[in-house]
Amino acid sequence: MLNHETEATWHYHNGTKHPNGMLLSRFHVYHPSHRPTPYKIYKNVPQVDLVLDKTPIGISALDAISTSDNIHNDTIPDIRTLGRILYFSSGITKKIKFKGLGEMDFRAASCTGALYHIEIYLVCSDLPGLGAGVYHFDPKHMKLDIIRLGDFRKFVSNATAEEPSVTKSPAILVFTDVFSRNSIKYQSREYRHAFWDCGTILANTLAITSAHKISSKVITGFVDSSICNLLGLDINEEAPITIVPLGESSQEAPDLSLQEINLDAIASDYEIEYPEVNAMHESSSLLTETEVASWRHQITTQRTESAKLIPLGGKIKVQEPLEDTIIRRGSTRKFSLEPITLDQLSTILNQATSGINSDFANHELLSDVYMIVNAVEGLESGSYHFVKEKNALEQLRKGILRHASGNLGLDQDLPYDASVTIFFMINLDKILEHFGNRGYRVVQLDAAISAGRMYLASYALGLGSTGLTFYDDLVTNFFSPHAVNKETMFLIAIGKKEKPSGF
After folding, report:
1. Are the beta carbons of 354 and 66 closer than 8 angstroms?
2. Taking the mean position of all CA atoms in its chain, how far away is CA 219?
3. Least enclosed by CB within 10 Å: which of 40, 204, 361, 456?
């Protein structure tokens, strides 16, 4: 199916809605003991050691997440900096023992079900401390698996139809999704999670590259099959999600021949197929460089003017280094019912929704931000729409809405207890008209990056946060008529973490 035949997206999106999407089985059961190994394991390939350097370089988390769009320089990352970028994007930051399950590794960014199905590859020229090649990041051992030796950047550049930031970059990250590692729990809804979880990782990636003053850009337009051939992937099992070029160099990539590779690797313990996931990926794939070039035209969002607005509070300055915030971050498991302050909410909204440098939007968030305020000092309880351009809120409904907040978040305690629940919503029809099926990838990723920034901002401010799933149509109905014809892309709950007993 071609990218412009957008009935494929609606079939998938409607079919994976909670609670009764036709592509989901209500009888499906997942037990944590069946959790796949959360790493891709290459057998008998040489590796390059990465130095694990957690030393803060003095940039706060709040500054790092809001300034990554404004860096333009010719910095070339060395192997030490690449190790830091990879570690603070997807490295192991903590280990926790669970009764009956043993010790589990937790990563720098949140992931649905802690299944960690996103892999990171590096395609680079000769860099200080690292030879040109194609590498896979092994977070378990902080190493790079060698996939190919040589400068193969030209193949990535060609796949992106010579996108300028890719063509000039000395180091290119490619993020992929191992389908079965997440679908074992979430079934066909996995393809949404691919972009949610890639987005929260990217929030970290963009922040740490910003802290190092290295330019970066999120690239979503590329020939999928070309990237798979370069990395040696079976697109039905593991597929490229996005590309992020790092830095700028005048060194041109040579024209090399690409030999087929067949490395012995295990991407997942389970060969579980959900044809709907493969069909959605195929229908949103771009097939030629010509198609990529014609597809790539940025969209500008048009917001409806709001009549009566409530100004937001000021921004809070917090000096905790980005590195410490990432290591401390986790998905909150229990919120207290205590309120957060208006300044805290204002800081999170402003710092996290500043837009990103991408090939699909001009430094602006595509989604509309809606929220249910349960406990924010200085702000009346109720539902709101965030008007970014005015740094203000439009009140949609007054009243105590905790039960609604909990209900929309799949009847869970977390959204009920949270101080605020934030929903990213968008008119999907308009996006698909502009981008085709590929637009479904774009809007999921765009919302998830902002939500990932909210994770970091919340923890930087001493709060907690967690991403949640939701009842799709109930969210639209709740925020209508303002949100009529809009679909939910992401839900994040924010509040004060409940202190352990005894404190």
Report:
1. yes
2. 13
3. 361
Average pLDDT over residues 385-393: 93
Q: Are strands 392-398 and 420-426 parallel, antiparallel or unpaired?
A: unpaired
pLDDT of residue 126: 96
Instruction: Tell me if 227 sits within 8 A of 123, measured CB to CB.
Output: no
Phi/psi at 260 (5° precision): -65, 140
Q: Please state whether the predicted TM-score (pTM) of the whole model is above 0.85.
A: yes
Question: CB neighbours of 60 closer than 8 A, spacing ≥ 6?
Answer: 317, 318, 319, 320, 321, 322, 460
CATH numbers and ranges of domains, the chain? 59-255+272-287 (3.40.109.10), 310-495 (3.40.109.10)
Write out the DSSP string of 135-158. Answer: EEEETTTTEEEEEEES--HHHHHH
The CB density around residue 9, as the number of other CB atoms within 10 Å, is 23
Question: Would you say 312 and 349 are in contact if contact means Cβ atoms under 8 Å apart?
Answer: yes
- Between CA 473 and CA 471 the distance in angstroms is 6
Q: In this model, does residue 410 exceed pLDDT 90?
A: yes
Buried b (16+ CB within 10 A) or exposed e, 240-261: bbbbbbbbbbeeebeeeeeeee
Tokens encoding 460: 């930087």
- Rounded to whole angstroms, the Cα distance separating 159 from 219 reads 11
Which residues, in sequence order, are CB contacts of 309 under 8 Å at separation 6+? 387, 390, 392, 393, 394
User: Contact 171/122 with Cβ under 8 angstroms?
Assistant: yes
